[in-house]
Amino acid sequence: MNASVDLLACAGRANVHIEAAIPQGHPSAQILGTGRIGSGTIVDPKGLILTVNYVVLGAQALKVTVQDGREFAAEIVAQDSISGLAILRISAKELPALPVSASRQLQLGDEVFVVSSVGGGSSRVANGNVTFLGPFDANWEYTLDRAIMASALNPGLGGGALVNQFGSAIGVVSLSLNLIGRFSLAIPGECFLEHQDDLLTNGRRTTVTPRAWLGLFCYPMQGHVVVAGLLPGAPAEQAGLKQGDVILAIDGQPVPDRRTFYNQLWTHSAGEAVDLQIFRNNKVRALEVATADAEEFFA
């Protein structure tokens, strides 16, 4: 590893361990569980912490352990369902913080390292190189215009920092795909920097209209999109969509892949209806779905 010992130590001191308690009745509990643990990064000496939203989604109680072993109750300051980031705050001062930088200067092959919590007030570091910079879409109605993938395998829990050789957090590690592709996926730092003021002031992005959300999981197959699962109580299930349905078109527009499906869906605001053409039991069917706001559904 080419990064200096001092740089690694600085990044490690800013890493925190997060424990979240989620009520059994919260919609996310069925998918993510009621007791979640994750990593976070102190980005302000006064106690602001950057992490991934899925760790704290629906939390009724949060505990943060910093590297010297102290434990703090934390509050959620902001949640951004578009980027997948969350901001927490603990009541502490003069904490070791890591600066956040945009990833725009990052290039393929650049050395980076991941810092993440392994519990008990300890953190681990793994180094690697940037292997991909570009669009990413996932099965839960989520995309990034520019994701970062690195060969640095996450050595601990999701939500830690992806750090460059200058000691800045250029991303937040969201997914550890060690078994699939042996890489880590990170949300770029600009997703925080460009919306920081709005998030800290309003708790969510208010500069964009809440976009349509269905509450389904899907995967691409042979030029179409197939429903892999449905969130109970969400618009897709309420409209009668079923697991295994093949989505042929939305609003009359063909659906050749998942990203096209999402982009067309997001031309609608939350609450507007969308028209789906689906294939089920050897028949083509029409289905109207009244969409919702994901952040309100999970609030």
Keywords:
Thrombin, subunit H; 299 residues; six-stranded antiparallel barrel; 8 helices; Pdz3 Domain; six-stranded antiparallel beta barrel; mainly beta
**SSE run:** HEHEEHEEEEEEEEEHHEEHEEHEEH
The proportion of residues in beta strands is 35-45%
Mean pLDDT: 93
Q: Which superfamily, in CATH terms, is the homologous superfamily of the largest domain?
A: Trypsin-like serine proteases
C-alpha geometry: globular
Radius of gyration over all CA atoms, rounded: 20 Å
Give the helix/strand class.
mainly beta
CATH class of the largest domain: Mainly Beta
CATH topology of the largest domain: Thrombin, subunit H
Strand order of the largest sheet: 1-2-3-6-5-4
The span between the termini is 42 Å
CATH architecture of the largest domain: Beta Barrel
Unreliable residue stretches: none
Query: What does the largest sheet look like?
Result: 6 strands, antiparallel, barrel
Percent helix, as a range, is 10-25%
Number of helices: 8
- Write down how many β-strands occur, each being a DSSP E stretch of 2 or more residues: 18
Number of domains: 3
